[in-house]
Amino acid sequence: MDPKRIIFIHGSESSGQTYKAGILRAVFPEMLSPDFTDDLAERLAQLRAITGETEGWTLVGSSLGGLTAAIFAIQSPNQVRKLVLLAPALALAEFAPYHTARIETPTVIIHGTRDEVVPLALIRPIAERVFSNARYLIVDDDHRLHKTAETLDWKNILA
Is 38 exposed, middle or buried (CB count within 10 Å of its CB: 0-12, 13-18, 19+)? Predict the structure, then answer.
């Protein structure tokens, strides 16, 4: 894994300087953590501008950032080495056209049992259809995953 090819994609009401990005940056100082706009199409365009045609990216997406990362992996599978999705917003209507897609990329989905913003019960059936190579870390936390984020073994998760 090349730390220069790790991108943190924040959620809709956040920035590249979010709490989780800070925790990841402490482990991977060269990681990219840009500010994305809220519009999904613009986020995808921004992500494509960053990645270019380069392969080997590890995408860490939180909430809407997880949705962005998943769509990018469907559209550009050869560029993505690994996905780490933190409470991904896969139940949004924008992901409905991709419900029949198959993502072969190794994926880790981290989701809280107390998430009321993006409930696990809505996300898991979608994820189980779409991600063929996923493992789940179900934690006792809410949507923000702040309690969990600082206790995770990020080096192992992103390896």
Answer: exposed
Burial class (CB in 10 A: 0-12, 13-18, 19+), 151: exposed
- Among candidates 105, 112, 108, 124, which has minimal Cα distance to 156? 108
Which domain, by its residues, includes 88?
Answer: 3-158
Q: In the prediction, which pLDDT does 37 show?
A: 87
Contact 78, 55 (CB under 8 A): yes
Q: Is residue 128 within 8 Å of 70, Cβ to Cβ?
A: no
Q: Mark the ranges of the chain whose per-residue pLDDT is less than 70.
A: none
The pTM of the full predicted model, rounded to 2 decimals, is 0.95
Rounded to whole angstroms, how far apart are CA atoms 128 and 42? 27
Number of independent structural domains in the chain: 1
Q: What is the CATH number of the domain that holds 109?
A: 3.40.50.1820
